[in-house]
Amino acid sequence: MAAQTTKMAEFVQEVVRAMGLTLVATVEESPDGARINLEGEDGGLLIRRGGEGLQALQHVVATAFRDELGDGQRVIVDCLGYRREKDAELREMARFAAEKVRRNGIQQEMGPLNPYERRIVHLAIAEDPAVTSESIGDAYMKTVIISARS
To answer: With contact defined as beta carbons under 8 Å apart, do 89 and 117 qualify?
Structure first.
């Protein structure tokens, strides 16, 4: 996987260079796949407006390397730790919703969320044996329903 992640990081580096951004791509390996971290003075341009630019770059990279990634392997593109912080925030929100479900038994909704965000929520909820989660909707953005396990 190391050669593949190097190739992905080089691709990301070329894309941001073509965008006219001064950023440096580094790779961090994890059991789920690779995380390509971007650092530099132009990072704010990718993460402004809710990280729309970063999300678009993530989509381009995932599409470009879809066939090369194995089952269960993912590539995550982050910039200035933005995604890492958002992921932690999303996990915390999922745990808070799970706590509300345990306390009062009323199901909670989170969303609309993209597939990556839904995965973060489902993994956080899976850690709690008292609750369960499911995605509903028929579009790219779906809602996650958190309810008591029956």
So the answer is: no
Query: Which of these, 63, 61, 69, lies nearest to 8 by C-alpha position?
Result: 61
Structure-block tokens of residue 40: 């530099």
Contact status, residue 94 vs residue 124, Cβ threshold 8 Å: yes
Phi, psi of 44 (to 5 degrees): -60, -30
Output the six-digit token pair for 130: 């008292």
How far apart, in whole angstroms, are the C-alpha atoms of residue 87 and residue 72?
18
State which amino acid sits at residue 57.
Answer: L
Domains of the chain: 2-80 (3.30.300.20), 86-148 (3.30.1370.50)
- Mean pLDDT of each 10-residue bin along the chain, 150 residues long: 80 94 90 87 92 91 81 84 95 97 96 91 96 94 94
For 141, the token pair is 């953005």
Name the residue among 73, 96, 81, 88 with its Cα closest to residue 120: 88
pTM for the complete prediction?
0.82
